[in-house]
Amino acid sequence: MNPFFRCRYWLRQVILVVIGAMAIAFLIAAAPIVAQDNLNRVTIFVDGRPLFEVAPAGSLTAQQRADYASDTLKQIIETAPPTIDVEIAGTDNLPVIKVNGNHLLSVTSNDTLTGRSPKEQARFWQTLVQNAMERAFLERTQDYIVQAVFLSVGCGLWGLISSWGVGSLWDHQIKWLFHKKLTKSTHRYRRQPALRAEIAGGTLILLFRVTILVFTLIYTSNLFPQTRQLSRQLNDTFVQSLTWEIIWVGDKPYSVLGLLTLIGLFAALIVLAKVVKKVLRSRILRLTNLSRPAQQTIAVIFHYGILSIGSIVLLHLWGIDFSSLAVFFGVLGVGIGFGIQGIAKECVSGLVLIFERPIQVGDFVNVGELMGTVENIGIRSTEILTMDQVSIIIPNSRFLEAEVVNWTHNNPVSRLKLPVGVAYGSDPIKVRSALIEAASQHREILDQPAPNVFFTGFGENALKFELLVWIEDPPKQFQIKSELYFLIEEILRHYHVDIPFPKLDLHVRSGNFPVDVSHQLIESLTQLSQELTQWMARQSHGTSHHGTSHNNVQINNTSDNN
């Protein structure tokens, strides 16, 4: 494989992996808040770090309990007591966690995990609170602050240097591959893949550099309690804005995150359909004895079948009630009928071409002034590769509304007609033998049906013959015709048979001058001729010493009697 195309392949795979990883990371980041909404639990934070989750208790909601506990811990940290004492009070069924004598929260049965008692859950949370408070006070010491400042500066420098290094590596080591390919590819059609690959590579490098800087900023902000809390608040606000149900479809609300998830699933469905189509064509259907057009038809049916069924399943899993969208689909149908009827027309024509199969992939067709091989039949348009290796996109309706010549429909064997003219006086039997001999010497001409020669008539300058031959590869017809004419000319020359050229014989029936000229005009022309002769003589005498010859021009008007 060409190293450039191998690079493009791996570049495409890396881009897909990066996009998938970013989508998964985003969903993971949003998962805690989504889970909290589903389980009705809220997380308690200490200096921006999650501690544990609490559930509703009595008349208090989970959010109220979490806010109270977070504010209590924040106030204790701000007072900076010399020691931290986390204790458990209350009963075994309703233990109470206190920090330096301040009530933090009561542990209920709703807060416990499966298999734990409220007392055991309280002891576990006691340890978490104790460690979190000690760490909070540690991060406010002078030694830690100095160490964090040096670490943040070093991390920032590392991020900047890494981002600059990746950009420099792209500009000086990798980008030249694409420029080299662009320089070698003089044709615009060949330059496009290299240009697209360069743009994709530059975009990937930019995303990677931005990712380095973002992760550097996140890591640096997590070194300090104040910036960590601000980062957590911004993150929670952003994620919560995505989980707000602000989009209504029918009677059911949906969030932006849900809509983005649906769009991502649809994108994955489209990729899956393309992969299935490609695997069917390249791996599975190749093992069968089906023709290439049949393989293309089966792959297209699977492709659109997966898209249709997958779309219905995704919308159903997303909770859309199709009965509530009856009005929407009705309006959409009217829009299709009036607004996008051209697209609908092409799509219907595409379905007719796929199932009725008047043309198939690999057929050599002639549509209007276009002639070429059918490369792909889509739902809206068909791609034809012309003899000049130019891809032409034709709307599907043209194949149903206009006359289409399909040279390879059902049977690729086609007949070619080659008109030949020879000079008058040539032996027709010898000409016929020469044409048959020329056809028999060409390797692309079929023996059956056998070549034939017809004497079609007498032309103005030649005897007209027509050579009929049969071929099985219509796309090569122009090349075959050219090679046959070369052979015909060579063999006719060998048999001394002349190929005429147009000529015209003029027969004069009378010697009289066809136009009556007046006597005055004749005298004027004679005088002008004499003056011109004298002037030419003077010019010749002035420039050369050689003898000059004078031409006397006389116009005689004589009449011949028939």
UniProtKB/TrEMBL annotation:
Where is there biased composition of kind Polar residues?
A: 551-562
Report the residue ranges that make up the Mechanosensitive ion channel MscS C-terminal domain in this protein: 417-499
| Entry keyword set | Cell membrane, Membrane, Transmembrane, Transmembrane helix
Q: Does the keyword Disulfide bond apply?
A: no
What is the organism field in this record? Answer: Moorena bouillonii PNG
Alphabetized InterPro entries for the sequence:
LSM_dom_sf (IPR010920), MS_channel_1st (IPR049142), MS_channel_C (IPR049278), MscS-like_channel (IPR052702), MscS_beta-dom_sf (IPR023408), MscS_channel_2nd (IPR006685), MscS_channel_C_sf (IPR011066), MscS_channel_CS (IPR006686)
State which residue ranges cross the membrane.
14-35, 144-170, 199-219, 254-276, 297-319, 325-344
Question: Which named protein is this?
Answer: Mechanosensitive ion channel protein MscS
Task: Tell me its family.
Answer: Belongs to the MscS (TC 1.A.23) family.
Q: Which domain of life is it from?
A: Bacteria
- Where is it chiefly localized? membrane
| Record's keyword annotation contains Transmembrane helix | yes
Region Disordered: start-end pairs = 537-562
Q: What processes does the entry annotate via GO biological process terms? A: transmembrane transport
Question: What subcellular compartments does it reside in?
Answer: Cell membrane
* Protein topology in the membrane: Multi-pass membrane protein
Question: What Gene3D superfamilies does the record tag this protein with?
Answer: 1.10.287.1260, 2.30.30.60, 3.30.70.100
Name the GO cellular-component terms: plasma membrane
Q: Pinpoint the Mechanosensitive ion channel MscS domain residues.
A: 344-409
